[in-house]
Design brief:
This protein has 237 residues and is of the alpha+beta class. The protein has two domains: 2-68, Arc Repressor Mutant, subunit A (Orthogonal Bundle), CATH 1.10.10; 72-234, Beta-Lactamase (2-Layer Sandwich), CATH 3.30.450. Helices cover 48% and strands 22% of the residues. It has eleven helices and nine strands. The chain has helices spanning 2-17, 23-30, 34-46, 63-68, 72-76, 80-93, 134-140, 145-156, 167-180, 215-220, 222-234; strands spanning 21-22, 50-53, 58-61, 96-103, 106-113, 127-129, 183-186, 193-202, 205-214. Strands 6-5-4-9-8-7 form a six-stranded antiparallel sheet, sandwiched between helices. A three-stranded antiparallel sheet has the order 1-3-2. It is globular, with a radius of gyration of 20 Å.
Length: 237
């Protein structure tokens, strides 16, 4: 597992930097022993995924790596109609808008639009536990109770005992979502932050849409936000 973490740590660091990086810079980002990092980089160069510029002592992705996931965007990226719906909600509310899907025990962001506060964008592909996110709760809406119970059990095996998910209050949240069509939460990802999320089904895709921003503002505008989200989602049906 450590070697896998090193590989993806290197690739993510290069992607974030958008420039070649030295071994020293990669070590700071990946946080592993230099000898282990050197072995990982050597293997990636040997396999053709990284280019090593010996004169500059830097590493950069190759075209092989760039081409590796070329088919992914066409399969998982939200369609034009979903993006337009998100943009409509963003224009009407002025808040952050996100689209995500379920990836096993976690949600994964597929699209993010920053609100008027221009907060740092959530990186596409970022994941969070379904059970620890309002957007995740909206995605659990699509599942039956037995499947949700299984997700909670499996999630709890990955968490320390003091941080485990309590099934009973979670199911109460899901039931409210089934009744009202949305969930709302505050202070989950960070203090003072509020989220309203809705399940979004388009053809065979079970997605979630969220609107987020300062908790006080989200709470005050709840009815308007919910109405705008419902209007945008209804047009997709």
């Amino acid at each position: 597992m450590d070697s896998i973490n090193r590989v993806f740590g290197c690739l993510e660091a290069l992607d974030a930097a958008e420039r070649p990086l030295s071994m020293g810079e990669l070590q700071i980002e990946v946080g592993c022993p230099l000898s282990s990092l050197a072995a990982t980089l050597s293997a990636l160069v040997r396999l053709g995924y990284l280019h090593h510029d010996r004169s500059r002592r830097t590493y950069a992705p190759t075209v092989l790596l760039a081409d590796l996931g070329g088919w992914v965007a066409s399969r998982f990226a939200p369609g034009k109609n979903i993006i337009e719906a998100a943009q409509t909600v963003r224009a009407a509310t002025g808040e952050n808008v996100a689209i995500a899907h379920r990836n096993d025990l976690r949600l994964q962001y597929l699209y993010f639009l920053p609100g008027k506060d221009m907060e740092p964008a959530v990186r596409i592909g970022t994941t969070r536990l379904l059970c620890r996110s309002a957007l995740g709760w909206a995605l659990l809406f699509f599942l039956n109770n037995k499947t949700i119970e299984s997700i909670v059990r499996r999630t709890n095996t990955t968490l320390p005992s003091e941080d485990r998910v309590d099934l009973v209050p979670l199911m109460a949240v899901i039931e409210r979502c089934r009744t009202s069509g949305f969930v709302q939460a505050e202070n989950m990802q960070r203090a003072g932050y509020g989220v309203i999320a809705m399940p979004l089904k388009v053809k065979n895709n079970n997605l979630g849409m969220s609107v987020s921003g300062p908790a006080e503002r989200i709470s005050r505008k709840q009815e308007d936000i919910v109405a705008e989200m419902n209007r945008a989602i209804l047009k997709l049906q």
